[in-house]
Amino acid sequence: MATPCCNRFAYRVFPVIVLVLCPSLAAADGGAIRLSEQKGNYRVTIFTAPTPLRAGPVDVSVLVQDAATGEPATGLQVTIKAQRCGFSSDAEVHSATTEAATNKLYHATNFYFAEPGCYSLEVCVDGELGEAQAAVELQVTEPPPRWRALWPWAAWPILAIVLFAIHQLLIRRNPR
To answer: How far apart are CA 49 and CA 62, in angstroms?
Structure first.
């Protein structure tokens, strides 16, 4: 039977180990800031995830604030257009919504960048304070190697064995 000390140790250390080994599980909002500037009556901040930006699924989040007060603007329609630099025929346009965002202050949508290279994002905001447009170019790198997506599935048994070994060491140190 495990001691209370051992249980407290495991409950405190295990979540830290998981978040250190898999930081994406922390589900932080936004991602990396790609642009933050005042456009018209708005301050538009564009975030992308993952970081670094890689070919594959990409989350684009936009925070729109009233430029005068700094408060998040409400009642907006936000559209995001993404296309490869120099390829005007393959543009994708998505509506960004608060429903798609984890943090409801943001407007978010997902794109799929099939290949590495230069991509252009154009954000159009339409709301009570008028219209605004912001644009940014992104460098997208190669997708991650396949083993990086699969390593957690192969590593979890090792983690279980290590935790069991720590548990056994603690029990032997404090025999009751």
So the answer is: 12
- Contact 111/146 with Cβ under 8 angstroms? no
Structure tokens at 53: 């930006």
Q: Is the dihedral of CA 51, 55, 58, 64 positive or negative?
A: positive
Domains of the chain, residue spans: 28-145
Position with higher pLDDT, 17 vs 4: 17
Above 50 in pLDDT, residue 28?
no
* Local confidence band at 172 (pLDDT 50, 70, 90 cut-offs): confident
Q: Are 79 and 109 in contact (CB under 8 A)?
A: no
Could you count the other beta carbons within 10 Å of the beta carbon of residue 25?
A: 11
Report the DSSP pairing between strands 77-84 and 117-127.
Answer: antiparallel
Q: Which one-letter DSSP state was computed for residue 49?
A: E
Cβ 107 vs Cβ 98: under 8 Å = yes
**Closest Cα partner for 133 from 59, 44, 32, 30?**
44
Q: What is the pTM of this model?
A: 0.69
Reply yes or no on domain 28-145 having CATH 3.30.450.20: no
Instruction: Name every residue whose Cβ is closer than 8 Å to that of residue 76 and which is 6 or more positions away in sequence.
Output: 64, 107, 125, 126, 127
